[in-house]
Amino acid sequence: MSDRKVVVLLPRIFDGQSLSISSYQAMLRFADRMVPVGDGQDPIAAALLPEGIAIDSIRCLLPGVRLRLGVLDQVAADAGTDIPAFSLVSAWEELLSDIDPICCMLPHTIDAVQLAAALSVRRRAACISGVVDVEALNGGEPMFHRLVDNGNRVARMAARTENVVLTVDWSRCSMREEASSMSEGTLEVKRLYRAIDGRYRLLDRHVPRADTRDLDRARVIVAVGRGLGKAENLSQVENFAATFPGSAVAGSRGACDSGWIPPERQIGVTGKTVSPEIYMALGISGAPQHLVGMQSSRSVVSINSDPHAPIFAHSDVGIIADMFAFIAAWIDRMSSMKKGNSPCP
Amino acid sequence: MPLRINVCLKPISENPSAGGWRFMKDSATSHGSDRFRMNLYDAHSLEAALQLKARLPDVFVLAIGLGPSGAETVLKRAVGMGADQAVHGKVAEPMDPLSTAGVLADLVHRYPCDLLFFGYMAEDSQQALTGPMTAALLDWPCLTAVVSEQLHPGMTGQRHVCATRELEAGVLETIECSLPAVLTIQARAVQPRYPALSKMLRSSESLVTIEERNMPTLSKPVQEVLDTRVPEASRSMVRLDGSPEEQVLALMGWLRLHHRLFLEVLE
Q1: Tens-place pLDDT, residues A298-324
Q2: How far is CA A197 from CA A14, A75, A85, A322, B43, in A?
Q3: What is the pLDDT of residues B80-98, one digit of tens each?
Q4: Is the pLDDT of residue A226 over 90?
Q5: What is the DSSP letter of A207?
Q6: pLDDT band at A59 (very low <50, low <70, confident <90, very high)
Q7: In degrees, to the nearest 5, what angle opens at C-alpha A269 toward C-alphas A292 and A65?
Q8: Would an 8 Å CB–CB cutoff place B84 in contact with chain A?
Q9: pTM, full prediction
């Protein structure tokens, strides 16, 4: 790879307010790891702004960062949030054309993956999605780590092109704790003239409003996956959950798609993120998309009949068992102890 | 003119030791003996196309799959589920997403369509790139992670697709775009149908095989899987063995020690 820039892209149009600073800073810290194969300088943060947004607003949010901003002449200040990220490929291409970055990094979101795919086709670059780590030794070929096979394996991948576009799952990256070396901020502003892809029209955007505060407050969350088998089995899980103080029941995407658990109680990328004291995963394989939603739990207890289920690698306690046999034994034991028939363990 | 929907299906190896066909570097020697199943997300994608076919008049559903000999079982299953025709493009080697997209874009020129459906991602490689890349190569609009879709005529008479996408944290976004378009279909509550025996028995008649020599030329790979390994554990798991009763006692003890739970029951 040649001696060029590493750029972190903010995929949605910046509206002057809704910038998740922590995630952006995490991306920049991750981008630091690519510096040895870039131009040796700090990564550049790039963003698109509509006409009328004060440039200083983003400068204040990211002090000390090398910024490259594109101002979209055709977009009004209040219209930016209605424009899908993936309709901005031409604008990004225009913003980056004169620096030809060696590496473009985006967050690993559904829209950003689509943008990355389209951008890589335009730039004739490799595209690696869901990167969780990078090995970028001086002078060596960078190797990108990503989870495959439902989280059962980590693949090390290499780009065979001069440039590469990445989506980075920074929530799963092991970040260095030290502050970024970035100290001297720079600013470049470019007016962009290429049209937004007007083939898309946003009709509606619905943010779920269901009350799931019990999941936010729960001391113990008992979550079920496809291992539940059928809706009729849910009562056993509910009885099991009821033996824990401050408990709530949730599900994986599979359990919610199957209609066993209400969709608003789904844990994972397309659902809620929770961090209870104890997360009990029953019959959940542990797909990466699910782990995102529960990995910050204090303790994770998993019960699964498949000893190779990836969830066990992310658990404090693993029980290889049929979940219903375990639940039956648990409830029997709890009943006996309450009656004073059984000795304490 | 019928509405033509091409559904791209990825055959996934059922041989776990081979670790999947497409992305595992060390599985190249086992292609010939592999058995294949339909990628789960693609099964939802096919189901979505078949439901459009059931709702609308004059819809033709074509299933397209790339893979070595043996992968045609997935295409036959697609016909068994209700696809009008299936095309098996023979390729011997695993391909990266851009190469796959290039081949599929070429096949769209051979088999024109109004809608090109993909599963949201492949179960094995989990990249979610091939659909958007194919759209970029065709210069078609693309909507990803779609959980429902409707077709309706636009103001100019051109047909439009109106699709609801499921994004992070359960946000639902409904977007309209004109046809032709690429849709990648998210897993849904409606389970993909089982194949009908009568259709399965006649599936060979509806299967077109394109031999490797007649396939589009593969572009040079732009990325490569160097190796794969078991991921490092993020937590140090304590495994509780024994009978269910013994496991229950062990878990109660662990919860009491680490979380001071059930003290009133146990003491």
Answers
A1: 999 999 999 999 999 999 999 999 999
A2: 17, 12, 10, 52, 30
A3: 999 999 999 999 877 899 9
A4: yes
A5: -
A6: confident
A7: 75
A8: no
A9: 0.88
Angle at B85 between CA B84 and CA B90, to 5 degrees: 160
Residues in chain B: 267
pLDDT of residue B13: 83
Q: What is the ipTM of this complex?
A: 0.89
Output B265 or A42, whichever has higher pLDDT.
Answer: A42
Q: Please, which residues bridge with residue B241 across strands?
A: none
Could you tell me which residues are beta bridge partners of residue A9? Answer: A46
* Backbone phi and psi for residue B60, each to the nearest 5 degrees, phi listed first: -115, 125
Residue owning tokens 């970029």: B136
Q: Which of A148, A163, A201, A304 to mutate to test the interface with B (most CBs of B within 10 A)?
A: A148
User: Is B238 within 8 Å of A111 when comparing Cβ atoms?
Assistant: no
Residue type, A1: M
Classify burial at A140, counting beta carbons within 10 Å of its beta carbon; exposed 0-12, middle 13-18, buried 19 or more.
Answer: exposed
Three-state secondary structure call for residue A167: strand
Local structure of residue B194 (DSSP, 8 states)? P
DSSP string for A75-134: S-TTTGGGS-GGG-HHHHHHHHTTT--SEEEEE--HHHHHHHHHHHHHHT-EEEEEEEEE
B123·A319 Cβ contact <8 A: no
Residue B174: HSE in the Cβ half-sphere, 13 Å Cα cutoff: 10
B-chain residues near A124 (CB < 8 A): 222
pLDDT of residue B33: 52
CA gap A299, A220 in Å, rounded: 10
Query: ∠A176-A126-A100 over CA atoms, to 5°?
Result: 80
For tokens 């190779």, the residue is A308
Give per-residue pLDDT as tens, A230-285.
Answer: 999 999 999 999 999 999 999 999 999 888 999 889 999 888 999 999 999 999 99
Closest in A201, A253, A317 to B175, CB measured: A201
Q: List the single best residue of B248, B252, B265, B267 to mutate versus A (max A Cβ within 10 A).
A: B248
**Are the Cβ atoms of A113 and B237 closer than 8 angstroms?**
no
Task: Match 């670059």 to its residue by tokens.
Answer: A125
Closest Cα partner for A5 from A35, A29, A25? A35
Q: Which residue of B has its CA nearest to A118?
A: B136
Name the phi and psi angles at A50, rounded to 5. Answer: -75, 165
> Could you give the percent of chain B with pLDDT greater than 70?
90
B contacts of A330 (beta carbons < 8 Å): 248, 251
Would you place residue B25 in the very low, low, confident or very high pLDDT band (cuts 50, 70, 90)?
very low
State how far residue A186 is from chain B, nearest Cα, in angstroms. Answer: 32
b vs e for B70-95, b when ≥16 Cβ sit within 10 Å of the residue's Cβ?
bbbbbbbbbbbbbbbbbbbbbbeebb
A154 contacts: CB under 8 Å, gap ≥ 6: A132, A145, A146, A147, A148, B228, B229, B230, B231, B232
Cα separation, B252 vs B254, in Å, equals: 5
CB–CB contact A127 B133 (8 Å):
yes
